[in-house]
Amino acid sequence: MSQDDTTKLGPSPEQVLYANILNKGMLVGLVVLLITFALYVFGIVKPYVPLDQLSNYWNLGVGDYLHELDIPTGWAWLGLLNYSDFLNFIGIALLAGISIICYIAIIPTLLKNGDTIYAVIAILEVIVLTLAATGIFGSGGH
Question: What is the pTM of this model?
Answer without folding.
Answer: 0.79
